[in-house]
Please model this.
Amino acid sequence: MSNNSTTSISSIYGPVDSWRLGKSLGIDLIMDTSTCSFNCTYCQLGFIQKITNERKIFIPTKKVIEDFKVSNWQNSDVITISGSGEPTLAINIGEVIKEIKNITSSKIPIAILTNGTLLNDQNVRADILNADVISVKLDATNDKTLKEINRPANGIDHALILLGIKKLKDDIIKIYDGRPLLQIQIMFMPQNKNQIEELAKLLNEIRPDEVALNTPTRPYPSGWDLITRGAHGEDAKKIKFPTKPLKRLTHEEAKEIENKLKALTELKILSVYKS
Ligand code: SF4
Model:
């Protein structure tokens, strides 16, 4: 799908219910084809069509703001920048955040869901630091697991990602006086569910404000269409491509991991199973 054909489709979707954030209005800054610097084996968008770490403008800010103004934003708890791929690839993300804060008078928090692969770039960090919540994915404890679960674009390795997250944390402390809130989101898969000590070590190095413990609750679609960006609950049934269920943690496994992470890090842990 080209940008020309997306002009009639809104870059805003939802609100959808998010277990991490509440009633969440989605902003999709990509919307072209699914585009990401990862190609996670559990991605709700299916196999990523364009795997890249190059930033550009996908949807002009003017269109995003026009779509936002006619959306149901007043009825959301949070505005979430996520959508059809990695949102920090959109070079206008900082501009969009500023304009939306102006429209809402900063009354509704803005959250960004990112895979953290671009955080070494100072411009990317500066672009997103005006958000209220930054939720960074960290599933892997080493390059092997990174390749198995997240299948990154060329040139991205585990050390680079970890360094970027630490730089973001430093910026939050030094420049922004403790804001925005830093959340680390971990998707537990068969490949990492036995790496709790290693994950706890990384969390202790980063010291986020909270950790979101997740496991794949949405099916993996064999193709991409725009519905997949907000495919929760009933919407997930509208995906026109065949889907396959993924192995998820049982409630018992999730509780055990939650308890272990709490004991090893003393961090606030939010669980997808809302224990
Ligand atoms: S980082 Fe997010 S959008 Fe990118 S492949 Fe992984 S789950 Fe999908």
Observations:
- The chain has one domain: 3-271.
